Each structure stands twice: as structure tokens, then as C-alpha cells.
Give the backbone structure.
Amino acid sequence: METLRLDNLGVPLRAFRLELSLEVSSTLALVGPSGAGKTTVLRAVAGLLRPEAGRIAVGDDVWFDADRGLSLPPDRRRVGLVFQEYALFPHMTVRRNVEYARKHGADEYLERFRIAHLATARPGQLSGGERQRVALARALARDPQVLLLDEPLAALDAHTRTAVRAELHELLAALDIPVLLVTHDFEDAAALADRVGVIVDGRLHQLGTPAELVAEPSDPFVASFGGANLLHGHAKATGGTTAVRLADGTVISTTDSGHGDVVLAVFPWDITLATTPPHDSAMNVIHGPIRTITRLGNRARVSIGPISAEITADSLHRLGLRTGQTAFASFKATGTRIVADGTPGSG
């Protein structure tokens, strides 16, 4: 498999400058807030935007080199690009949309993406998942060296999203070309990509597997984007652990080292809820009235004070939890991470 390489890419944007170096050899997701520069990266690779500096190459093929004054136009770059809204031609049938690239006949791709039975349909007659499969088939019919996906699940409703996410993961895993996708949703990125890069204001904060980003977030933003609760407090070493005093006086223990003002991360799925105080003295406990309960399929997100816990719907029913009721959220010291502290240069 060839590798897509972005070397010292530089693009001046309105509020900041995008500066990025990246290697993509399988499926990599760039995640971050809106306006972070994610789509700018895709546009630069596709040739829809000319960077001010840097180099873009796939294998031995150089598509852009600022020092040499080289910038291949989009039609000379073997790129498959799937736009957020899929950008299918509404007046064309599925077959004609797939054949539009004029690189390969449509039959192979209609079968591969299980849309042969839709060959004579038009985009307006398709579901969101079907439109996505047509857009992917059209992109890959160009025989690209690189596949680019811009917010591939954003156009889908919540009911369709989960099923299409699993289907898209299967399709991407079978490809033998680099895939670069951008999304603002960490859950989508973790489900679809082998590696995830968190980009904010044009800079890469952290790059790793989804598990690495959750286990060892490099800073509060990465932790928060991965779904963690962030707790601000003042840390002091206490023997083998660190005690962090929160603003309301609650003391949280962590096995991480830190001192001074710190930010602690604890993930919702590492928190246990109860209606009575836990008897285990080794557990951290935050208690208070339940602020909100949000049901998410077979799970529920319950907010108490500064944190949210994620439990099963069965546990929610068994505990009889309701808004306004006092509850106890407990978690282990080993389940916390200090993601910013008072050490010079940290955070």
C-alpha cells in the first residue's frame, strides 16, 4: 500500500495558520471542532486549494511541492473525494453517477457496494445510507490512490447513523489505499479509523489509536473531545497518590503525579452510580442531586454536579434514578488522569 505524505504543509487561514505534517498508510481520521482546519487539509490534498508551503506526495508521485513551484491540478491527482452531502448528480441514475469518473465500468462497483438493484434509481429516491454507498462507489471507480471523506456520517439521521457507521467501517477496512477522513465526532472517528489525529486551530494536538487517545490524552482538549469529564482543582502529593481539592471542597485521589492547579480527566464509563454512599474507602465519591438524565439507546448519561456517568438502561431502571434525586458517583483513583498541571510547560 502506498503512503500519503504531507510534509510541513502551510496554509494561511483567517484566524490562524494551518501547519501540519502527516503520514497516512491506512485509515486516518482528523477530528476537531468546526473551523479547526480539517476540511482545508482535504482540499489541499485534492488540489482544490493551493498551500503556501510544504509538499504532498503519494508513494513516488509528487502532487504539490511549494519549493519547486509544482502543483498538479485536481484532474491529474488520483483522488476519490466524497463530500459531506455526497454531491450526487440528481438528474442521473445511480449507474450514471458511478460511471461519471469514466475510469471503470459501473457493474463491479454496483455489486461491490450492494447497490446493483438501485442502478436505475435517482439520488432523490435513495436513503441516506444508499446515497453514501453510491458516492463511495463513484469515488472508487476513479481508481484513486487516496480516498478522502468529508464528514462521512454527518448527513445521516441518528437512527441510520449507527448502522451505516458499521457498514462504512467494513468497506474501509477492505480497501488497500490510504483513507483520510475528517469529522467533528470522536465516536465516528474511533469506529472508522485505525489512527486519529486531533487538530485544533491548525495544529495537531495528538495522533494515535483511539485507545491511546482515551488512555493517555495529551491535554484537556483531547481528553474532553474523547468524552472525558474535566475536573479543575488544586493538587498535593499524599504518599503514593495525589489529592486534588475541587472548588466545592471535594477531594479526589489520583495515582498520577501533579502539583498546584491541575485538570483531572475521568471518563463516564469508569463511574459507578448508587443511591447510597459506597462503603469502599478507596473510591472517589461525588454526590449531589441528579441534574439531567439522557437516554442513548440501551445506555443512559446521568449528570451529577460537575460530572456525567454513563450506565446501562437496565441499571438506570434498577436504581430508580430520577432528576433531582440525590445520587453518589464513585470512581477509582486509577480511573483518573491529570491532563494539565502546574509544572512549567505542561498542559
Remarks:
- The CA atoms of residues 36 and 200 lie 5 Å apart.
- The longest strand covers residues 283-296.
- The first helix runs from residue 38 to 46.
